[in-house]
Write a structure and sequence with these properties.
Blueprint (H helix, E strand, L loop, with lengths): L19 H10 L2 H8 L3 H15 L4 E3 L4 E3 L1 H25 L5 E7 L1 H18 L3 E7 L13 E7 L8 E11 L2 H4 L15 E4 L11 H7 L11 E4 L2 H9 L4 E5 L2 H8 L11 E11 L7 H15 L7
Parallel strand pairs: 3-4, 3-5, 7-8, 7-9
Antiparallel strand pairs: 1-2, 5-10, 6-9, 6-10
Helix pairs in contact: 1-2, 1-3, 1-4, 2-3
Length: 316
């Protein structure tokens, strides 16, 4: 008499794979519309893919609200697996396509760090490693390295909230800096005298301005409340304020590691070199754990750490 197959030997019911790209994008962006735009599909196509996937899985993957989308527990579990699987597939395809060509290293960092510190040094890196191609994603968004297929990130983060496995590059401090040509026009005796020039400041929306502003520095310097006699110029990006100071448009609060570079080059001078205020932030290096052992990633990380060890020292 024939017996039925045991549950353990029963063939699993496979699911179609076509919808997984759409699901991954929708789960990451929490929007069918944004996922459709990213994949160059229609919103209805993404909706049909997700509906078909939910039927095959047998569980709802999203909670559909009026103006929002959220993952269910099953959706979050599937997202983790799909993200890792697609990343592994994409990595293999990139390696196959790139066989025999330059090794590509992708990094993300904020725009001001890229323009003021990193890009000027990349020529030296490329002379040492001419076969490594660098791609920079200069964005103020904190990107998911694995989901966005990025090798490393250089981030500016609160000192007490370093990402897991991050490597410290430098603890930041800030000090007033001014063009040497502008400084020749008047003598300074006390910190409050800086207000005779325009004070170059950052917009309140910029991360870290609760410490990186003139009111905080004057308080640190025990100068009390100082009214800007020549007014203020407010910028949305750190590099804008630094470049304005170099052009002699006023006095900027410049933080590490830009401060060290600008002083070492002679573009700026610190009129009160001992009054360097800790900011409570630090620059850190974060490496995608799936890419950390790749030789070209290791080469870049080693070179970067070496560059920070060579940051010019500030003299009191």
């Amino acid at each position: 008499m024939a017996t039925s197959a045991s549950t353990g030997n029963r063939r699993r019911r496979p699911i179609g794979l076509a919808a997984l790209r759409g699901f991954e994008a929708a789960a990451r962006l929490l929007s069918f519309t944004a996922a459709a735009a990213e994949l160059n599909l229609t919103q209805s196509s993404i909706s049909r893919q997700i509906a078909a996937l939910e039927r095959q899985v047998g569980r709802p993957l999203f909670v559909r609200k009026t103006r929002a989308l959220a993952l269910t527990a099953a959706g979050a579990q599937l997202q983790r697996a799909v993200r890792q699987a697609l990343a592994a597939i994409d990595q293999s395809v990139d390696e196959i396509r790139g066989a025999g060509s330059a090794r590509r290293m992708t990094l993300t960092t904020y725009a001001s760090f890229a323009s003021l510190w990193l890009v000027p040094r990349l020529a030296a890196f490329q002379r040492r490693y001419p076969d490594i191609e660098i791609r920079i994603d200069a964005s103020d968004r904190v990107l998911d390295l694995q989901a966005e297929d990025i090798d490393v990130a250089i981030r500016w983060t609160p000192a007490g909230a370093m990402p897991e496995q991050a490597a410290l590059l430098i603890d930041d401090m800030v000090a007033p800096a001014i063009s040497p040509h502008l400084l020749q026009s008047a003598s300074l005796r006390k910190p409050a005298d800086l207000a005779r020039w325009p004070l170059l400041d950052l917009d309140d929306s910029v991360v870290g301005t609760e410490r990186l502003n003139w009111a905080a520095w004057f308080d640190f310097a025990k100068a009390g409340s100082v009214a800007p006699a020549a007014g203020r110029l407010v910028f949305s990006f750190v590099d804008q304020a630094v470049q304005a100071a170099i052009r002699g448009q006023g006095v900027a609060l410049v933080r590490s590691p830009f401060l060290q570079d600008c002083v070492a080059s002679g573009d700026l001078v610190m009129p009160f070199p001992r009054l360097r205020m800790p900011v409570g932030y630090r620059h850190v290096l974060v490496v995608n754990p799936a890419r950390a052992r790749r030789p070209h990633v290791e080469a870049f990380c080693g070179w970067l750490l070496e560059q920070f060890q060579r940051v010019p020292q500030l003299v009191d």
